[in-house]
Design goal:
By secondary structure, the chain is of the alpha+beta class. It folds into two domains: about 200 residues, 2-Layer Sandwich (Ribosomal Protein S5, domain 2); about 170 residues, GHMP kinase, C-terminal domain (Alpha-Beta Plaits), CATH 3.30.70. Helix content is about 40%, strand content about 25%. The protein starts with a helix and ends with a strand. The mean pLDDT is about 95. Bound molecules: alpha-D-galactopyranose (GLA). Alpha-D-galactopyranose binds next to helix 5. The site of alpha-D-galactopyranose has 10 residues, from helix 5.
């Protein structure tokens, strides 16, 4: 599938621009556990997947740069000298943001032409945005030999999202998409931006993603609100970030803060703990324990951190009296997107039929099911 994608982007580029491009693949990601912990300097356990974005790039002789989004058949022409984020710019702001952030680093960019397209469902919580940002920065780095390290590139991708899209995201998505390792998840320390690779054998189980196909409109504003709540408590506790807080510290200010904020921060502290437990479970081949931690994480996201929604809760709940699934939770920022499930190999078809029908009965819309493999991070495609 990936090969077909690469070929079609390459062909589109050649037919449109009449030159042979440099090609880059940048994957989306899943997250086993550790949700809303990254911007608290905490720990996450993501992996790059075998779905992603292909970017084809070459120099341009024009006095402007051109980017084509193949899947939606849209084109953006812009001058490197006058970059501004666009109202309702969608994908364009990710591109413009990355270019603007590179320029802030005093790196010389010439004009370029680029075509990108992919096979990650948009808005599914699989980080199509990080894949896009990374594909742009990586391909520009290659084309203009900018000498950026991978760490510098993911910082650029993240800033593009902060400053041009307006989401104050953490570093998990960009890191996983850039540094992913085949068949492995990355236990990432988001303060030191350092990861340990865990080769994963899910034994008799497989990862299954179920996409609610919804993205509730409050998703972005609530994301920034949650971050602000965490920062408020950080300053009350006089610490650097919630990573440094213990449950005892939090108890010491319990009567000074609303119960809702207490629960949110408690969730973050406990979720960090779960990330460690999950990595140990993987090390010990205890996939059942990993599944239990999925359920605990979802419970916290639903009731304490309050970023779930009816569709996600329904999908998780529906797995509970089904012993073919040993763990399920919402994945990513919340208010829509996918659940991640640990399902017994061989039962995928039966379960998929069951859940599709149940979801349709309840919400009168379809959910989608994906199988993914843990894969390599962003790379140059050798021609
Ligand atoms: C989004 C953000 C990440 C992270 C997750 C929640 O995917 O981009 O930085 O905060 O939400 O874990």
């Amino acid at each position: 599938m990936k090969d077909r994608l690469i070929l079609s982007i390459k062909q589109k580029f050649i037919s449109k621009f009449n030159s042979v491009p440099i090609l880059v693949f940048s994957p989306g990601r899943i997250n086993l556990i550790g949700e809303h912990t990254d911007y608290n300097d905490g720990f996450v356990f993501p992996a790059a997947i075998d779905k992603g974005i292909v970017a084809a790039i070459h120099y341009s002789d024009e006095h402007f740069s051109s980017v084509i989004a193949y899947d939606v058949n849209e084109q953006l022409d812009f001058s490197l000298e006058h970059i501004q984020s666009l109202k309702k710019g969608g994908w364009k702001n990710y591109v413009l943001g990355v270019v603007a952030e590179i320029r802030k680093k005093d790196k010389h960019l010439g004009n370029f032409k680029l075509v990108f397209g992919g096979n990650i469902p948009i808005g599914a919580g699989l980080s199509s945005s990080a894949a896009l940002e990374n594909s742009i920065v990586y391909s520009l780095n290659e084309l203009f030999q900018l000498g950026l390290t991978k760490k510098e590139m993911i910082a650029i991708s993240q800033k593009a999202e902060h400053n041009y899209v307006g989401v104050k995201c953490g570093i998990m998505d960009q890191y996983a998409s850039m540094f992913g390792v085949k068949n492995s998840a990355l236990l990432l320390d988001c303060r030191h931006i350092k990861a340990t690779n865990f080769k994963i054998d899910f034994k008799d189980y497989d990862i299954l993603l179920i996409n609610t196909n919804v993205k509730h409109s409050l998703a972005e504003s609530v994301y920034n609100e949650r971050r602000a709540t965490c920062e408020k408590i950080v300053s009350l506790l006089n610490i650097k970030s919630l990573r440094d807080a213990s449950e005892i510290d939090l108890l010491s200010i319990k009567d000074q803060i609303p119960e809702e904020d207490y629960q949110k921060v408690l969730y973050v502290i406990q979720e960090n703990q779960r990330v460690f437990e999950a990595s140990k479970a993987v090390q010990n081949n205890d996939i059942k324990l990993l599944g239990k931690l999925f359920y605990d994480s979802h419970h916290g996201l639903q009731h304490q951190y309050q970023v779930s929604c009816d569709e996600l809760d329904f999908l998780v709940e529906a797995t509970k009296d089904n012993d073919t699934i040993i763990g399920a939770r919402m994945m990513g920022s919340g208010f829509g997107g996918c659940t991640i499930n640990l399902i017994k190999k061989g039962d995928i078809l039966d379960f998929s039929n069951f859940i599709k029908e149940a979801f349709k009965n309840k919400f009168k819309t379809d959910c989608n099911i994906y199988n993914v493999n843990l894969s390599q991070g962003t790379y140059l495609i050798k021609s």
